[in-house]
Amino acid sequence: MRMILMAAVAAATLSAPALATGKMKCDVKPEDRKPIEELKAELVKQGWTVAKAKVDGGCYEVYGVMPETGRVEAYFHPVTFEKLFVEQRGKVLFKKG
Fold first, then answer.
1. Backbone angles phi, psi at 83, to 5 degrees
2. Per-residue pLDDT, 23
3. Contacts for 24 with CB less than 8 Å, ≥ 6 apart
4. Who has greater pLDDT, 3 or 66?
5. Which of 52, 71, 76, 85 is most buried, judged by most C-beta within 10 A?
6. Where are the alpha helices (DSSP H) in the chain?
7. pTM score, whole prediction
8. How large is the average pLDDT for residues 63-87?
9. Statement: residue 11 has pLDDT above 50
10. How many angstroms separate the CA atoms of 34 and 43, rounded?
């Protein structure tokens, strides 16, 4: 019985979306997204230091330093670059809607 349970857990883990955190979801086709480099450039203009940016849940996830709050994890819409979610050390600073 234990082997069956372990196999079921392994199968569920392998079928889950790769590295999606579930914090935000953006239903945008990859070909409709603006280049992530454009978002990074826009954030730098606003005073951010961008450490890492990637796609997560279809949204753009950015790890960086905001001038007014310090180190954050933030999500942006991949077409409009609208800020959707900002978190700092587990504390939600902003969440759209």
1. -70, 130
2. 86
3. 56, 57, 59, 61, 75, 84, 85
4. 66
5. 76
6. 2-15, 36-45
7. 0.77
8. 96
9. no
10. 14
